[in-house]
Specification:
By secondary structure, this protein is mainly alpha-helical. The protein has helices spanning 19-49, 52-61, 63-80, 82-107, 111-134, 145-195, 205-208, 213-226, 230-258, 262-287, 293-312, 317-345, 351-365, 370-380, 382-402, 404-407. The longest helix has 51 residues, at 145-195.
Length: 413
């Protein structure tokens, strides 16, 4: 069956000057800040209601439904349309979190209640994330998708800077219930903005919904496997994220402890990483397009690999911060190009399922390497683990360079 699609024409203005894109960006930013405030509230409530181990369980348990249901979330996004799914998911998050705020006023933080909240929130996230990835190609022209990825990166930096302080202030002034209420209000604001975002829709949506869900999922996986560009691109995403996420997220704190740099030293390195990632996002936001994107992607990943290895041998905080800038810059650039190439290469009917696979690699499976990385650092120290992570990232870069279709891929002009 052939699907006809209606893709929005390239806007008269660049994405960063298009009111429709900016409404979506504001909604996305509100949602990200709400996420930060929610996790702050959840962590604080968990710490008050149980032991450190139980608090860690509460924070980790939400990842389980997110990983298990992510592929199904992609099917939902393609069946019902990303706009409808994003609005419904964001509204559901608002209702759930505001309901938790009200419950805490009555019962106080209860461990079982927080576990249920984390599980439900993770399940909703599994539906939300694929739909979020399927929206950008429907709100702007193909030649603006790299710029949109840059704008998304800037929104993430804003959320990182503002979310935690806002959550901490809410906890200090109003307690856990008030902090959940703030998160719920942010999700509600995101929903209100999303309602006003205009998108293109698939013409033959009704015919697609008659397929069994498992067949829809299988069709999406076959589509990726048989695609000359998406198949190697998904492999690069999976391998690169595996080498990057665990060593950096777990190893950085242990590196600072091992070399007596302290919390302040770690803070400088994290800030340097954020500055580099922000610079990559700003570059894409301003330029709107990177020539020879398919070649730049693995080369930037390879450069990030070198910077990760540099962290392993950094003799001081200053040199580690320099390496952190390059890790953030090159990893941010390669990640944004992965997103832009995925969205331009994928037929709109499959965007939700393709995004679900990419999100499963980046947000579902990669965190499973954290315990392994921690155990390896405990046995051999940080340097071997950083070098191993760099080697895995380099493997992802080599896969990208070896793939002719990916190496020759270009973003639309």
């Amino acid at each position: 069956m052939t699907l006809t699609t209606r893709i929005p024409p390239a806007p008269a203005r660049p994405a960063h000057r298009d009111a429709n894109v900016l409404r979506w960006l504001a909604a996305y930013t509100f949602s990200l800040v709400g996420d930060s405030v929610y996790y702050m509230a959840l962590a604080w409530a968990a710490a008050r209601s149980g032991s450190p181990g139980q608090a860690g369980l509460v924070l980790a348990v939400g990842a389980v439904p997110r990983a298990l249901l992510m592929l199904g979330g992609g099917v939902v996004a393609d069946r019902f349309g990303p706009r409808r799914v994003v609005i419904g998911s964001d509204a559901a998050r608002s209702v759930i979190i505001l309901g938790m705020a009200a419950a805490l006023l009555v019962t106080g933080p209860q461990l079982w209640l927080l576990i249920v909240l984390a599980l439900v929130f993770g399940a909703v996230d599994a539906v939300l994330l694929p739909a979020l990835g399927a929206l950008p190609p429907r709100i702007t022209g193909p030649d603006e998708l790299a710029r949109v990825q840059g704008l998304k990166g800037l929104a993430a930096r804003i959320a990182n800077i503002t979310g935690a302080p806002l959550g901490g202030l809410a906890v200090a002034l109003g307690g856990t219930a008030a902090t959940f209420a703030v998160a719920g209000a942010l999700f509600a604001a995101s929903t209100a903005l999303l309602v006003r975002v205009r998108i293109a829709r698939l013409d033959d949506e009704g015919a697609r919904t008659r397929k069994p869900p498992l067949r829809d999922l299988a069709d999406g996986l076959r589509y990726i496997r048989g695609h000359r560009l998406l198949a190697p691109l998904m492999l690069v995403i999976a391998v690169g994220e595996l080498g990057f996420a665990a060593p950096l997220n777990i190893g950085l704190a242990l590196l600072a402890k091992e070399r007596a740099w302290g919390a302040a030293g770690m803070g400088w390195i994290v800030a340097a990483f954020g500055a580099g990632a922000g610079a990559a996002s700003l570059l894409l936001s301003l330029r709107g397009r990177i020539p020879r994107a398919g070649l730049v992607l693995p080369l930037s990943l390879l450069g990030g690999t070198t910077a990760i290895a540099g962290l392993a041998f950094a003799p001081s905080v200053a040199w580690a911060a320099v390496a952190g800038v390059f890790v953030g810059l090159l990893a941010g650039l390669s990640g944004a190009l992965c997103g832009a190439l995925t969205q331009t290469a994928t037929e709109p009917a499959y965007l939700g399922r393709v995004t679900a696979v990419a999100s499963l690699f980046t947000m579902g499976l990669a965190p499973l390497g954290y315990p392994l990385a921690g155990a390896a650092i405990g046995a051999w120290g940080t340097t071997p683990v950083f070098l191993a992570g760099a080697g895995v990232c380099a493997t992802g870069a080599v896969i990208g360079l070896a793939s002719g279709p990916l190496r020759r891929a270009e973003l639309p002009r």
